[in-house]
Each structure stands twice: as C-alpha cells, then as structure tokens.
Prior knowledge:
By secondary structure, the chain is of the alpha/beta class. The chain has helices spanning about 10-20, 40-45, 60-70, 70-75, 80-95, 125-140, 150-160, 160-165, 165-170, 180-195, 215-220, 230-250, 260-270, 290-300, 315-325, 340-345, 365-380, 385-390, 405-415, 425-435, 485-500, 520-525, and strands at about 1-5, 30, 55, 100-105, 145-150, 200-205, 250-255, 280-285, 310, 395-400, 440-450, 450-465, 465-475, 505, 525-530, 530-535, 550.
Amino acid sequence: MKLLLSANFSTQFVKHALQNVSDSGESFIWSEAEFGSVIQSLFSIDRRSDITALVILMDGKNLENQFHSLSTEDRKTFGIDEAELLSQAVDHALSCGIQHVFIGNIAATAGAVHGTHHPLNHDGFEHHRRQWNQVIYDYVTRTHAANILDLERLIVAIGIRNASDAKLRVLADQPWSLSFTEDVANFILRVIRSKQGALHKCLILDLDNTLWGGVIGDDGVEGIAIGQDGIGKAFRDVQLWARELKRRGVILCICSKNTESVAREPFAIHPEMILREDDIAVFVANWENKASNIQYIQEVLNISFDSMVFLDDNPMERSIVRENIPGITVPELPENPEEYLGFLQTQQLFETTAKAVVSETKDRNRQYQIEAKRLASQKSAVSLDDFLTGLEMKAIVSEFQPPDFPRIEELFQRSNQFNLTTYRYSSQEISQLAQSKNHCTWSFRLEDKFGHHGLISLVVGKIENECLIIEAWVMSCRVLKRTMEDFIFNSILETAQKLDLKELRGVYLPTAKNKLVEGLYPGLGFQASVDGFILETRLHKPRDTFILTK
Length: 550
C-alpha cells in the first residue's frame, strides 16, 4: 500500500514517525508531497500514479496565518472556499484511481484576537475553521472513499500545550511536539488498519474494581461503589463508555473470578448499574484462570484474539493474559479509577471508519448468547453429525438488496479470516454490483432451532467467457464447521449450471489473517491452475450438507 502524505507544513517528522510505528509485517510505503503544496500535489496525480491512498493534514496555525494575510473582503468566505478547493482536489485524485483518502480535521488554535467573543465573530479565524471542518465533514459523508482523521479529538485529550512545540514550529515548520507526532502516527495507522479490517470487535471486562468499586463477594450489592457520588462516578463513566461501544456494534463480555450468581446480581438489581445482562454477549464468572476463560469466550465468538481487548485492574491478571494469549490487547489501566476513562479515551482502542451504526449489530449480543447454548449442545452431543442434524438448520439465499447494503458493507469490512480476497467493497460498489448484468451476487442468512444467525455470508461472482469467477467470498466464522460452505458452493454451482457456464474459477489471495481458507477451493473439488482454482461445472454435483433451503 503506497500512501502519499500531503500537508500545509513540513511532513518529514510525521513520515519518520509513521515508518517507526509501523509493524514490520506491514507493506506501507510512505512518500511526501512537495512542501506545503496540498492542492497542487493532489491535482498533479494522474492515472499512471501508483499511489493507493492519501493522508492529508492541515495545521490550523498555518491556515490562520494565511487568513490573516488576506483583506477583509477576501476573508468573508475563506473557510468554505479553502475546504471546497480541497474537496475538488480530492475528487480529482479519486478519479485517477486513488482508493482511500484520510483527511485530518483542524483543531482550534490558541489565538483569540477578538477576546472572549472570538468564536462568535465572523471576522475571526475560529468561525472559518469551523466552516472548513463542516464542509469537509459533509464531503466525507457523501464520498465513500473519504475518511476523517479526528485529530481535534486527539489534541483535546492531550492538550494544546503538550501537543505543540514552539521551537519546532519556528525552526522546522513542524506544528507538533515529537511525542505528539508519534501519537498522531499511531492514530493514523489505527484508522488505516481499521479500513483494512484490523478492528477490535470485542471488549472483555473484569468486574471488581473495574466495572464497580469494591469486591462483590465481600461487600455485597449494597457495598460496591457505582453511581453518581464519589468514586462511584468513575466506574459509572466506564460503564457508560462501554455501553456506547456496544451500541456501535462492539461485543461486550465479562471475565471475572467470582461465583457466577453473585457476579450477576448487580446487573439485575443495582439501581445505578448502566450495563445489564442483556448487554453482555458472554458472561464468564468462575474461579478458573482468566486466560482459559478468555479462550472459552473466543471459542463462543469465533473471532481472532487480536480483535479482543481485555480490561482488568489487577496487574498480575493482565500479565497472565498477555503471556498466555498472544495478540490480545491488554491496556495498562492506571492505578486510580478516577483516571480510567481519560486513559481509555486516549488509547483509540476501537477506531473505525464505519460511517453509520448498522441496526443488525444491535442484535449481535443476543446471537452470541444463543451461540453459547449451541456450544454447550455440541459438547453434549454423541457425534458432530448428531449435533448438526439436531440443529435443524435452514438458510435463506438472496441477491444483494438495498436494505442490506449497510450490513453487506460492514461484513466485507470486518471479515478477515474467512475472506478469500480481502477486497473491501464500498456501499457505492455494492450498489453497482447489485445492478450489474455481468455479476452474480449472493447473500446468505442462517437460522436453527436456537435462533437466527442473521446475514452471515456474501459471494460476488463475475461472468466472463463462459466462466463464473468468484471475485469475493466472505463468511462469519460463527458458522464454521456446520457445512455452510458446502451449501454456499451448491448455490454457486447451481447458478453456473443454470447459466450454462462451463467453469467456476476461485481466487484466493493469501494474507496474514486468511490462512483459514487456503484449502477451501481444493476441499470443494477445485483444481489449482495459473489463474487460481478451476472446476468444470458439468462434472460436479451438489455436496452433502446439513442445511436446508428455507
């Protein structure tokens, strides 16, 4: 992935920080636009460029100086004009094949020449800064390839004094301190990784002195600290933060050393509890080690450990989990609960480029609660075949439909393990695929006797020269080992045979995370070739599956 860094200040320190904080396995190639030439650098991009993404950063102070150099007449529409010009330049870059654009918003400056009424004065820069941001926000909202880098939030968390360095600004035209530049680099990379599907999807919470103050087993419900008074406010704030993450689609789980009935009691009866049992997808409270319990949670959720975050006030428990579960993120919570929320808000643990909350994500906790019941049923079954037969599974197959487009986009963005090509379709591209005469699309829903899984798999096929090329195939790992992949193959094969297509061609592009599916096509009867994996449709019959069509 080749990224062009363009800014209205010197970018050498930012570029160096980005290179330093990148993982060794990441293939990011950073280049810099000519100093201070944001608009020109974007308009100079042509279709021969090998740049795949743009990162655009604007220093508010430099923009303020530009504003102050103008006449009164030229200032009137400064913020709007500058933002619209940038939008036009980005449009040009996108028309030349740029896939992703990340635009930093502009934080407030310390200047206030109009005193306390500076934010209200249309002759002041603050008014135009806000207008610039709003125009860019509107542009990003309507442009699928554009994303906001909320640097203003980062500066608010750190503080302007800590974020800036007067000497570097004067001598090197570098607006930020070296330490904050590293914070910015980490933030930018988190956002880019989230665009590539590297998301934290699950928050696992300890209870005692993490979600509430005190020890529930000793202090009882009436003795724990949670609420609007004293130290209880700190824990209430953490719960409010966690609940908002859940509303966004993050999975909440509990992992606590406690007697389960005692641990659940505050969720049921404490009047100041923000989180309730319905908010928790998997609730594990026992006296086993937490690493083993987190492994059980992972088994239920069927997501990778590197998509999990574990919060615990106990340094020893944090250390044990880190040592035994590679990949999981375990933040070093401060010793004082009063500092929990501020610390968590600066960590950018759950960065996302999603522009809307998908309604189906709100039901995800219920789905995982049901999945725990399925897992218990599987462990008690005589054999896997008996378990699968007993599930009474039924699938609904349809083409891509407009009401599903947000969920379809989300599934393409979030799927990493069962993802044959890892292409991340945008909402606009999904709409185009649904209308294309040269493409076939499939969406799959699954239900069983325990409940609904929802939309769990997507396939995109392209018709080309009597061949159906499977350009994309993603599936939720929740339904692995239940013959769903066989059912999906049958649906693809049936379509190809109806269209009298001679071949199916499967494409597998290996990544660090999709090794799970490297043997999928050979396992379905495809033969390896220079063009991928080939299967002659006339020679194959549907595969056995435990799933019926509803």
